[in-house]
Design goal:
Helices cover 18% and strands 61% of the residues. The protein is an alpha+beta fold. It has one domain: Dodecin subunit-like, CATH 3.30.1660. Strands 1-3-2 form a three-stranded antiparallel β-sheet. The chain is elongated, with a radius of gyration of 14 Å.
Amino acid sequence: MAVVKVIELLSESVNGWEAAAQEAVSEASKTIDNIQSVYVSNMQAIVENDKIVNYRLNVKISFIVK
């Protein structure tokens, strides 16, 4: 039986939702091994002068604890 742990992160990118999700996984992988999935629980976009300038995500990352 595997033990799975879930952490919550905030991430942002000027390049879109997918880039923000990848940024969260990339940062988490610096200190966490065995990442299994990322769940996007909230999305927010910052708008300036009628244009989206930043994409923000709340994500939950699950990984196997050995």
